[in-house]
Design goal:
alpha/beta; Rossmann fold; 2 domains; five-stranded parallel sheet; five-stranded mixed sheet; 13 helices; 16% strand
Length: 360
Amino acid sequence: MLIGLLLAAAPLPPGLTAALTLTDVTGRQIELAAPARRLLIDDGRFLVALSLIHPDPVSMLAAWPRDINRIGKRAYEQYRAKFPAIDALAKVASSAGTLSVEQVVASKPDLAVFSLGSQPTEEELAKIEAAGIPVVIIDFFTHPLKNLEPSLRLLGAATGRQAQADAFLAFRRARLDTIAAKVATLDPAARPKVFLEPHAAMTGDCCSSPGRGNVGEVIDFVGGRNIGDEVIPRAFGKLNLEYIVVQDPAVYIATGGSHMEGTAGLLIGPEYSEARARETLKGVVARPGFQGLKAVREGRVHGLSHQLLNSPLDILTVEALARWIHPELFGGLDPDATRQLVNERFLAVPVEGPNWIDLD
C-alpha cells in the first residue's frame, strides 16, 4: 500500500509548522505535530535508510537495537568513527527479538518505527501510544520491491527530509525501470532456475532459501525462477538437498558476511579481500551434493553480502542478481559503479566492498 502524505495547505504563521498525517505500510494513519527528531528503530538497516536522507543519521535516533551484524562490523565502525554519539543511544530489542514496551517508553522517542514482520501486538501498540509515542510500520524485508519506496518516503516525510528521500527513490526507480523493460522482452521459458542460499553453510543443516517474498521477489523481477517459490509459502524457509538436486538450478548464489566468522560459510564484505571471499565461496559449494549442480558445473556460482538484503540499498542487489541471472541482457550493468554513485550522491556513511563475487 502506498503511503499517503497530507500536509495542511493553508499558510501558517511564522515559526509554526504543519501537522503531518502519515499512512504506513499496514494502512494505519498517525499524526505528528511536527517532524520527528528522536526515532526509535528496531532494525539497524533503518539507520542506513536515514543515512540516505540525512547527513547525521545518528542525531535522529533515540534508540536502536545495536544489531551490528545487520549492517556489518566495518560499517558500524565507520558510523561510530563519524558519529560517536551512537554509543550513547538507548538499546532496544531488534525485530528478531522480543519487544519490550518498557524499553520503548523509557527511550522517549517522538516516533517509534517497527518492522512489518515483527510489529507490536494490538495490546503493545495501545500501551506505547498511551505513553504519547506514535508508531509507524515500514518494510524492507517481506515485500521489498513493493514496500521499500513507500517506507523510505514515510521516513523522509516523518523527519522533514522528503526531498532527499524523493531524490534517492527517483535514482532507484530509473534503474529498476530499465531492468524491468529488458526483462519484459524475455520468453518465460528463458527464465533460469536460481537457488539463493542465505547464510550459506552457517550450519550443517541444508538449506535456507527465500520463498514467496523477500529476495525471492527480486529473483523473479530480474527474470529468474526462485526454486523455493513453489514449496515455501513464507518469505524464508528450508529446502532439503534432495529437492535442490532434482531442481538442478542453473544459478547458485550464497550470502554471507562477517557474521559468518567461525562457520564454514561465505566471508564477504569490506572486512575481507576478494581472494578470501572467493576462497570461502569455493568451500561453500564443496559440500556434498553441490558439485553435481548445473550452476557449479557451468561456473555460475556467486557470493553476495547478506547485509545488502532487506536493505534500503536493494538496487545494488537487484543489479548484481540481474547480471548473474541474465548476463546476455545485463552484462553491461556495473553495480560497483552504482555503489559509488550512491556513496557520492546520497549516503552519509559510504558502502565499501567487496559485496559480490564470482567463483570463476
